[in-house]
Amino acid sequence: GEGIDNFWKVLEEGKNCTVEIPPERFNTEEWYDPDSNKPGKICTTRAALLNEFNTFDNHLFGINSVEAESMDPQQKLLLECTYKALEDAGVPVEAISGTKTGVFIGLMNRDFEIVRSKLVNEINHYAGTGSATSIAANRVNFTFNLTGPSLTIDTACSSFLFALHYTLRAIKSGN
User: Fold this and answer.
1) Quick one: 47 and 70 in the same domain?
2) Rounded to two decimals, what is the model's pTM?
3) Structural domain count, the chain
4) 78, exposed or middle or buried, with CB in 10 Å at 0-12, 13-18, 19+?
């Protein structure tokens, strides 16, 4: 569900939020095999999915439609979550613009980049910035006009913890 209250409710109730993957999201018939050791196959037909996948309002963030098509959904979600977090905190976007605010993100999955790199006819001058995980923190900094440090960290499952570590170091050092 949407919002922090729904998130806590799911945690409190120990709810399993997975659903059958709909065909418009992913062709499970082509990729599914119950044998988890079979190369090139998946062994599940379920996932925890966002209800409003691909409803990104690119114009809100000053991003043209061609660039938005080339953007990893993770980058889109980061922009939306940053906007919502500021809104929930009662901080107008204008109030942080130009400030020495840093962005530290732990990010590890490159699914979008891998899939898009195979679609040779769809590669354009936004392909690199739209799919590279290294750009994620920079995109948030640029979009919200932040002038502090900007770092995307990939240390696999510990990515968030390292991002938090670097965030705390930056705060302590005054960066």
Assistant:
1) no
2) 0.82
3) 2
4) buried
